Amino acid sequence: MDQKFIIDRFEEDFAVCETSGRRMVNIPFEDIPPDSKEGDILRFEAGIYIKDTEATDVNRQRIQSKFNRLKK
Fold it and tell me: Which DSSP string corresponds to 5-44?
């Protein structure tokens, strides 16, 4: 089963990520893709973290849509 993580922020030597179960976990920098940014969604498959660019784009669009509705 794939696990998904959203990068919330970076601290010291790790990325603080929210799991799909709403828990916060720390993932060492060396374990995530080097071009990762806050808000990126990572999948854990076969023992490695992979950026899910499609899921990240969908999530960013959803958040932007909510923000735009608040501005009206």
Answer: EEEEEEETTEEEEEETTS-EEEEEGGGS-TT--TT-EEEE
Q: What is the pLDDT along the chain (72 residues), one digit of tens a residue?
A: 568 999 999 999 999 999 988 999 999 999 999 999 999 999 999 999 999 999 999 999 999 999 999 887
Tokens standing for residue 61: 């669009």
Contacts 24+ apart (CB under 8 A), 16-22: 17/42
Dihedral sign (CA 6, 38, 16, 27)? positive
pTM of the model: 0.85
Quick one: 3-71 is in which CATH superfamily?
A: Nucleic acid-binding proteins (2.40.50.140)
